[in-house]
Specification:
This protein has two helices and 40 strands. By secondary structure, it is mainly beta. The protein starts with a helix and ends in a 9-residue tail after the last strand.
Length: 561
């Protein structure tokens, strides 16, 4: 009997031990990623030398922790024999080894997020035939982890849509119209079944015509400030586009400068149907809801005889970089930034709210499309007797002379910066909180808006009325009335000068309480990565003749508020 009890007790202890022993977390699963397919120009290429196409494989660590064990990644190259030659891309061979039958890469840890595993340069092998295919598969192994493989289909030959650059005027006036001529060729080996024409314009440029086979959407996706303010029109041009043929869009496409146009951009591209960049879900839904019903369709007409017949099912574009063009416009226009004055009352010990800032009376919106540079800085001098107890986002405290200060609260002066877009009717109101520590009758400060200088601000070159750049900020005014706010005037003329010359970039943005109409702060021109000729505003200078607009754009140079 005692023996039976002992066995039962032992069984209970084993069960209890299993219950209280912590379970091991499941091994992490990492996703390997690469393009679905790439096309190779047939050997030996147009120049007589093999044409190289790059393919990059990456790993995605979606967890919140770094995987700290060694990993090995392998690409079996045997399927590529007779189809493609492989080399490690320059600068990417430190942790990878290339042999005749495989590429092997070692990693001693996997950071969170997405990172590169290997980049390969491929070219069509000598003697390879157009249409030859092979799979390039990346696999991974590591103790305590699982990897989902990635496969890229490699094919010799394919279509190659090449878009010509349209002749457009960079300098224009509000209301000006220009025709956007779309001419493209298929310089590949395979035909294309249907082409998507994509035209993206910023806030100040409108596309006049509407066609039944086109749809429109606006990109207002939260958290994507570079894309905010863009409108996208996509048109499906049906038909077969043959190798060696030149095509022109048969129908007017008119670009019109809006009354608020100023610094604007355009990108336009052609893609094989189904091969165009994917839109976020909310944009796709918006596009469906805004399909045009104009009663006529946009089409493309062939302008050269076809060269070859269909050789295989549609494949990946051989060089997507020449599918796209971009253009930047400088419109002769002005924008009047007006500082908004404020008068407050308070007793000793009271805390008061103060929304301090400016508004844009237009007519233009202002966007630093390429540089990401802040459009304007608001310089706020705090009246005597008050101490700032809450500083809004986008603002930093400085000393009275504008020099750096560590402590943000209680500063005598503040610099507040916008994002790189200010809408044509937008208001920036930075919500401060101040405590009245001493009643000073008619205590005066100021609010000044302009462009960045080391000492504070100065007038914008495109602002036609700098007399309203400064307004009074008064606490316990003698007459109890509101501080005066200057009225809008257009008597002054802007002085032609570079808007961005040696002006460091401001990275602060207005707080969420800043309100206004038009395009919200944070919009701008997206980089397309096009390798074609560009009227580049990054570092280039554009002069809008007769309007006093002289623009200079450059990449981000610093972090000033």
């Amino acid at each position: 009997m005692r023996k039976r009890i002992s066995l039962l007790a032992a069984g209970a202890l084993v069960a209890l031990g299993a219950a209280i022993t912590p379970a091991h977390a499941a091994d992490p699963v990492f996703t390997l990623a690469g393009p679905a397919g790439i096309g190779l120009r047939p050997h030996p290429g147009q120049s007589g030398e093999p044409h190289t196409t790059s393919v990059e494989f990456r790993i995605v660590n979606d967890s919140t922790k770094t995987f700290d064990r060694p990993s090995t990644f392998t690409i079996d190259l045997r399927a590529l024999k007779g189809v493609a030659d492989v080399a490690l891309a320059k600068g990417r061979d430190a942790d990878c080894k290339l042999a005749a039958e495989a590429v092997t890469c070692k990693r001693w840890g996997l950071w969170t997020g997405e990172s590169s595993v290997v980049k390969l340069d491929l070219s069509a092998a000598e003697g390879s035939k157009v249409g030859a295919t092979a799979d390039l598969t990346l696999t991974g192994t590591a103790e305590g982890a699982t990897f989902e493989a990635a496969t890229t289909k490699v094919r010799v030959g394919g279509p190659d849509l090449v878009l010509e650059r349209a002749r457009l005027k960079a300098e224009q006036k509000p209301g000006d119209r220009q025709n956007l001529s779309i001419i493209f060729a298929n310089e590949g080996t395979d035909p294309v079944d249907g082409v998507v024409l994509e035209m993206r314009t910023t806030h100040g440029i409108d596309l006049v015509e509407q066609y039944d086979n086109c749809s429109s959407s606006e990109d207002s996706t939260a958290g994507r400030p570079w894309n905010q303010g863009w409108s996208t029109v996509r048109c499906l041009l049906e038909g077969e586009y043959e190798p060696g043929a030149l095509y022109g869009v048969d129908g007017p496409l008119t670009l019109k400068a809006a009354p608020h146009a100023f610094m604007d951009g355009l990108t336009y591209a052609v893609y094989a149907a189904g091969d165009q960049p994917k839109q976020p879900k909310e944009q796709r839904q918006a596009a469906k809801n805004r399909a045009f019903a104009a009663g006529h369709k946009l089409a493309a007409a062939k302008q050269a005889p076809k060269a070859t017949a269909r050789s295989a099912p549609q494949a990946t574009d051989l060089d997507p970089r020449n599918n796209i063009q971009e253009f930047d416009f400088a419109t002769r226009n002005t924008a009047d930034l007006v500082a908004t004055g404020l008068s407050l009352k308070g007793k000793v010990g009271e805390t008061v709210d103060a929304a301090l800032g400016f508004r844009n009376d237009g007519p233009a919106w202002v966007a630093h499309l390429r540089s990401d540079e802040a459009v304007a800085r608001t310089d706020i001098v705090i009246p005597a007797g008050a101490r700032v107890t809450r500083v809004p986002a986008g603002c930093k405290g400085v000393n009275a002379d504008g020099t750096h200060r560590e402590q943000a609260l209680g500063a005598p002066r503040y610099f507040c910066s916008t994002g790189h877009v200010v809408g044509e009717k937008e208001t920036f109101a930075y919500p401060f909180q101040l405590k009245i520590e001493k009643v000073v009758v008619d205590a005066k400060g100021s609010i000044t808006v302009g462009r960045w200088t080391p000492e504070g601000t100065t007038g914008q070159r495109w602002d036609p009325n700098r007399t309203n750049d400064t307004a009074a900020f008064v606490i316990n005014a003698k007459d109890g009335g509101p501080a005066p706010t200057p009225t809008t005037s257009t008597s002054a003329s802007p002085t032609p000068a570079p808007t961005g010359s040696a002006t460091p970039t401001a990275t602060a943005t207005p707080s969420a309480s800043a309100t206004g109409t038009g395009v919200t702060a944070g919009g701008g021109l997206a980089s397309t990565g096009s390798s074609t000729q560009v009227v580049a505003l990054g570092g280039a200078v554009l002069l809008a003749v007769g309007g006093g607009l002289f623009l200079a754009f450059r990449r981000k140079a610093g972090g000033h508020a």
